[in-house]
Amino acid sequence: MNHPNPAIVTQAAARRFPRLALLLFCCAYVLPGFLGRDAWKSADMTALGYMAELVHGTSSWFAPTLMGVPAENPALLPYWLGAWAMQLAPPGLALDFAARVPFGLLLALAMVSTWYGTYYLARSPRAQPVAFAFGGEALPTDYARAMADGGLLAFIACLGLAQLSHETTPALAQLGFAALFFYAFGALPYHRTAPAIAATVGLSGMALSGAPTMAALFGLGSAVVHYLDQSPDANSTRKPGTSARESIALLLVTAAIGGLTMALGLWRWKIELPHALWVDWNGFSQLLLWFTWPAWPLALWTTWRWRHQLFSRQVSRHIALPAWWLVVCVVASLTTGSSDRTLLLSLPALAALAAFALPTLKRPVASLIDWFTLLFFSGCGLTIWVVWIAMQTGFPQQPAANVARLAPGFEASFSVVTFAIAVVATLAWAWLVKWRVGRNRAAIWKSLVLPSGGAALCWLLLMTLWMPLLNYAQGYTALVKRTVNQMDKSGCVATLGLGQDQIAAFQFYGQLQLRASQSPPRCPWLLVEPGPNMAVPASVKAEQWALKASIRHPVDADESVLLFHRK
Predict the structure, then answer these.
(1) Is residue 323 domain-shared with residue 403, that is, in the same domain?
(2) 59 falls within a domain
(3) Which residues of 231-335 form beta strands (DSSP E)?
(4) Cα–Cα distance for residue pair 8/337, rounded to 1 Å
(5) In whole angstroms, what is the distance from residue 210 CA to residue 74 CA?
(6) Which of 171, 173, 203, 317 would be 341's cystine partner, CB 3.0–4.6 Å?
(7) 536: domain range?
(8) Predicted TM-score (pTM) of this structure
(9) Residues near 293 by Cβ (< 8 Å), separated by ≥ 6?
């Protein structure tokens, strides 16, 4: 017979992850990707362009524009944070790096909030493990701490987190503030002031970062779950009747934030119902599978093993809240044009759900996760090293030839610092594998050590060994330099058909004064997006403009431009 509470955890299994090791592990995941790189295409570069416009005073702070064009994502706070960081940057500090600093802090905030949110959800009475007849079960605090460690490891292990969480885009700001609200809801039965502040800041930050609808749905669903959660807890500071008052207060805060975003013009409906086509549904299914891997199998297992609490009359907040967030994010991903960035908001809740699978995993399942993770990430790490060696030495020949074909003109460079960091990370992975295959079976979070460690390893190797190649392929500096070398910087440069990311790159990295081709003054230069096969668009008048150069992006032909000089 299935017990309503399937968690059976001994005190020995509730050991916590060593704090110094956990801190170093998080730093090793957060810092790579924010250090030593240019802004990449396309959302990352576009957001940097809007921030630069605010700094230069050529755009309104309450209606950010890039060369007069408003942002596609109606967000304010992310652009403000980046612009303020650029304004406060000390002399000599690269402005694109300065803009990334607050976003690195937002990723750290998401990690801390995920840990504490999972911790307080695990403190819930209905989340506690089964009491043994003669004692020996995990103590509530130790159990919650171990579950929080597992939740944070599951959060880091999600494959879709890596790149999007290291960009200077509204999506990362939404993630940080959503995780903050996730913590607020988890801690509400145990504290009052800090969760109230966190809930207000979290919902406000989400709304001002371009996700007012998601903030409203999160606030509404959380208020309902909080009202229905009447489970007694000796450690809770909540008095009888407090749940109703707190739920009403949460609804009022949500309504007030909704009114604010409407007054600022940030509430825009972007509903696009999915087409009944196999290609669309297959693509979304694949995105859902890899983006949330390996947390989604564990979350499904949690839903099954804790189903008696999920569908019981008495609400279990540790299952109901993450499940609500996950449903909202999946449905929103289906009905919006940015599926991956919407799914990003589900990761804190998904990680918490994955953590509650840990007390119920059987040993064969845990072993399957370990071996699959070991083979997958070891193979990925080996591939990264082999390609890097080929870039440096030309051997093996096939990987070197592939790099030369995909990134023509790229010249590899060697850095002692990045090489040393990559070696240390690889040795740490080897030690972690040795530790896991040993007889360390007690800790409840052990099954998520290799997935999170492997994800961090591969991301760190990419951001060290492959950083010059990725900057060359994903950045705009090579295209901008080739363009600027063909012209002088005197006067303005007209543009025709360029994307927002290209405009931002030429303005930020090229220091060019761009103007729309239809607007005065008459500029001596013209940058045009070419047609197929680098054809000159018909809108360019041959009697006015002479083709100076056809400049191709070294990797992506779709990013190429045509440079004209006025006759």
Answers:
(1) no
(2) no
(3) none
(4) 42
(5) 5
(6) 171
(7) 477-566
(8) 0.95
(9) 158, 159
- The pLDDT of residue 199: 96
Q: Domain boundary residue among 454, 474, 494?
A: 474
Shared-domain flag, residues 23 and 143: yes
d(C-alpha 366, C-alpha 373), whole Å: 11
Q: How far apart are CA 322 and CA 187, in angstroms?
A: 14
Residue-level pLDDT at 275: 64
β-partners of residue 66 are 69
φ, ψ of residue 273 in degrees (nearest 5): -65, 140
- List all residues 6 or more positions away from 486 whose beta carbon is below 8 Å from its beta carbon: 548, 549, 551, 563
Computed from CA positions of residues 471, 475, 479, 482, in that sequence, does the dihedral angle turn out positive or negative? negative
| Nearest CA-CA partner of 4 in 128, 95, 110, 107 | 128
Residue type, 455: A
All residues at 6 or more sequence positions from 223 whose CB lies less than 8 Å from its CB, including other chains? 247, 248, 250, 251, 254
SS3 549: strand
List beta partners, residue 70.
65
pLDDT value at position 315?
77
Chain segment 51-81, per-residue pLDDT in tens: 999 999 999 999 999 998 998 878 999 999 9
Same domain? 310 vs 403: no
- What is the DSSP annotation of 165-197? TTSSSHHHHHHHHHHHHHHHHHHTTT-SHHHHH
DSSP state of 7: -
Count, residues in the chain: 567
37/35 Cα distance (integer angstroms): 6
**Alpha-carbon dihedral angle through residues 176, 182, 183, 185, given to the nearest 10 degrees:** 150
Give the max Cα distance, the chain: 94
Task: State the pLDDT at residue 228.
Answer: 85
Report how many domains make up the chain: 3
The answer to whether residues 490 and 524 touch, using CB atoms and an 8 Å cutoff, is yes
168 with 289, same domain: the answer is: yes
Identity of the residue numbered 355: A
Same domain, 331 and 367: no
Which segments of 196-259 are extended strands (E)? none
375 plus 458 within the same structural domain: yes
Asked if the structure places residue 68 within a domain, the reply is no
Which pair of structure tokens corresponds to residue 131? 């009491």
Q: Are 180 and 219 in contact (CB under 8 A)?
A: no
Looking at the structure, do residues 23 and 129 belong to the same domain, yes or no?
yes
Q: Are 400 and 394 in contact (CB under 8 A)?
A: yes
Which of these three, 451, 474, 497, is where a domain ends?
474
Q: How many of the other CB atoms lie within 10 Å of CB of 397?
A: 9
Residues 151 and 287 in one domain: yes
Residue 50 maps to a domain: no
Q: What is the DSSP string of 81-122?
A: HHHHHHHHPPTTS-HHHHHHHHHHHHHHHHHHHHHHHHHHHH
The residues of the chain scoring below 70 in pLDDT are: 1-4, 133, 230-241, 269-277, 311-313, 337, 439-441, 489-490, 520
Cα–Cα distances in angstroms (integers) from residue 175 to residues 7, 67, 160, 206, 413, in the given order: 29, 28, 12, 8, 35
Residue pair 549/516 in contact by the 8 Å Cβ criterion: no
Distance from C-alpha of 457 to C-alpha of 450, rounded to nearest angstrom: 10
| Cα angle for residues 501, 505, 510 (degrees, 5° grid) | 160
Q: Is the residue at 188 inside a domain?
A: no
